[in-house]
Amino acid sequence: MSYKFIDLEICGPVGWYRFNCPPRNAADWEMLDEMCAAFEALLARPEAKVVVIASALERYFHTGADISAFKNANPTRMRDWVALTHHLATVIRKASKPVLAAINGIAVGGGLEMTLHADLRFAASDARLGQPEVNIGFIPPVAGTQGLVRLIGRSRAFRMLYGGELIDAETALEFGLVDFVSAPETLIHDVQTYAEMLASKPANTLAAIRRCLVDGGGGTFDEGLEIEKAEAIALASHPNFAEGVSAFLEKRPPNWT
Fold first, then answer.
1. Does pTM surpass 0.90?
2. Does residue 229 sit within a domain?
């Protein structure tokens, strides 16, 4: 299925999800609906072992909401908007596949908030990132407040949300907002290479790791231990575990199912 604002592409075992709404990838109601549907559609593609959030535009990753969509906003309409954005964040966080982000250009607002729920973020060295919602009297609604504080900690989240300024890629790396910084010309290659490495791992184990960290990391330590225990027990009964042990002992590459 094709989409008006999102490009989906399968490159080997990697599914690329690219915002494509010139000139700045700003989301109105129609694009927001499509952002949810397209992401769910890509997750459902069995050949996509890893999903990457990216942009088809050279200078912009995503500039968040089209502010005109908020003109004459009221609580009822905002409730609908936030319901959609929270659904999108939940779909990303609950994904059973690794989710990466390839951030280029200007990345602010809702688009950047989507990447907070990915597993790892790669940024081009000339990218600029920020959460400027305070400057229109608002907050990041794509589960942005909760994603940001869990990712970079309370003090740095306050600094970003209170100030509303854009930061460069190196500062984002220092904050823990991104995990890798690449030259602009190698960003896509670097992400594809890393994603292919992930795709070579056992998919059920990657899913278990994701549940332990995303679900377990959001609760108490004891709650996390219960998730870890359940996942370890489930993995032990999967053929991949027996294959991994045998391959290790026999000093050969494993053949994952």
1. yes
2. yes
